[in-house]
Specification:
Blueprint: H1 2-18, H2 29-42, H3 45-56, E1 61-62, H4 63-68, H5 74-86, E2 90-95, E3 98-103, H6 105-124
Antiparallel strand pairs: 1-3, 2-3
Length: 125
């Protein structure tokens, strides 16, 4: 048994010596967490469609128009809008009883850069 344990230890030590990688991740922990939050927000067809709707508009879009574009209730749309606001992709401006939403284009550009950083080597080569 002692000989087997020594053999296992030597094998593990040998693996550690030959498997040292010089590859370093492009993201630090904070960037990885931001990317995960962004990807979680984008991982829903309704939210992607809302982003697309806002991207195609020339300005702000009333929440009533966003809600009318889906076969979902207002509370569900509000939930999706909150998630998109929380990751900073959209902003809302309350006017009376309505909220008008628009893309935060600088954040969308940052999100695009982050996605390219995460999977850049897959995209470019």
């Amino acid at each position: 048994m002692k000989k087997e344990l020594t053999l296992i230890k030597n094998t593990v030590a040998d693996l550690g010596a030959c498997c040292k990688s010089t590859i370093q991740p492009a993201l630090n922990q904070t960037q990885a967490e931001q990317a995960a939050n962004l990807f979680a927000a984008l991982a829903d067809p309704t939210r992607l469609t809302i982003l697309n709707l806002l991207a195609k508009s020339q300005g702000e879009v009333c929440v009533c128009d966003i809600t009318a574009s889906f076969k979902l209730g207002q509370p569900t749309i509000s939930h999706h809008l909150k998630i998109l606001r929380d990751v900073g992709l959209i902003t809302g401006d309350r006017r009376g009883k309505w909220v008008y939403y628009s893309l935060v284009r600088s954040q969308v550009a940052s999100a695009k850069n982050l996605i390219q950083e995460v999977v850049g080597t897959l995209i470019s080569g």
